Amino acid sequence: MRDKNFLVAGLAMVVFVMLAAAGWANWMNRKHLAEIQMQRQMQPMVMGQMPGMGTAQNGADGEMTSPMVGKPAENFTLTDLSGKKVSLADYKGKAVQLNFWATWCAPCKIETPWLVDLEKQYKPQGFEILGVSFDDLDLDDAAKLKGEEADIAKSAKQLGIDYPVLLNGDAISKQYGDPAVFPTSFFVNRQGKIIAATMGLTSKSDLENDIKKALGTGE
Amino acid sequence: MSEWMVAVLSVLLLAGQQNPFASLLGDSGTKTAAQPPEAVRYLYPEQVAVTADTATPVELHFSVKQGLHINSHIPKTKDMIPTTITFPSDAGVRMSDVEFPAGKDFVLPVAGAPGDHLSVYTGEFAVRGMMTAERGAHLVQAKLRYQACDNRACMPPHTIPVVVNVTAR
Prior knowledge:
The structure holds two protein chains of two kinds.
Chain A: H1 2-40, H2 44-47, E1 57-58, E2 64-65, E3 77-79, E4 85-87, E5 95-101, H3 106-122, E6 127-133, H4 142-158, E7 165-166, E8 184-188, E9 194-199, H5 204-215
Parallel strand pairs in A: 5-6, 6-7
Antiparallel strand pairs in A: 1-2, 3-4, 5-8, 8-9
Chain B: H1 2-17, H2 22-25, E1 40-44, E2 47-50, E3 56-64, E4 69-71, E5 84-86, E6 93-99, E7 104-106, E8 118-121, E9 124-133, E10 136-146, E11 148-149, E12 158-168
Parallel strand pairs in B: 2-12
Antiparallel strand pairs in B: 1-3, 3-9, 4-8, 4-11, 5-10, 6-9, 7-8, 10-12
């Protein structure tokens, strides 16, 4: 009888330890998955609740996707740093990356040199980048506006940007789902359809893959 | 013995379905939708009692959401947007000698980062100042403006209300 009690107590202890271990492993696994998801999505568990981020969704692979993907890229006309009007329609037949950025965005400054390289590399195949600045502009104050435009131009020069930088991105924000984090890029294929989007800093190879998709040479 | 094994396996399967520590540890799991929307939250005080017409030190405490940082009041470069606070001028309450804490040096921990240092606030920080109020009750609605980022993305500048009930006797 005593041996039986001892056996039952021992088994109960084993069950308890295994239960605790399973629970702990499960919790750690969930925590790890949540961390990975958070990193991949530029921590949208924080940012996803910010105004505008409600438009972003999680894809099946856990990556952040945009509801804009699969839709036609709406045409727009903005002014570039030289004062020239630039329309997306001017790039018909080309693969275009719309890169939404701002001078106050530190991750954008990491990404931009990659974009400069990639634009040079893929331009011969018909790839173009349009940088769209989301810096605030005092449109009603000519003196302030001039200074703000000069600051954007200075920043673009420091970053080595040699593709068009368009001003007042806020004007087209709604057309592109009100992206609320920067950098954000939309990749438009030769038929004018948005085939990929990135929100937050990804990697040069991820950007390159999306460029290839836009060119019709990638998966 | 086989009944024991069935029981153990059943318990383990159940354990795999639920986190037994979730209620204790506040595990967010995959249900993160209930996060508050602001990157920065005003913590306290909600009420301040001061002597009328006498400058009184006041500290306003804020919290930056975990994983995010905001630029300090004095960023290292002109293109970064500083954290600022503004007080209404017509509330019968005046704030003077407003002081922000020094920012912490921060480099984005991302491969390829240029190594530029940022000056940021993370976690909790406090803005100090001297408050002078006319006799009576006042509802001060100040505004804190900041620009928040995490390591991979930035949000546009944002302003939150800082509401303090001030009683001056």
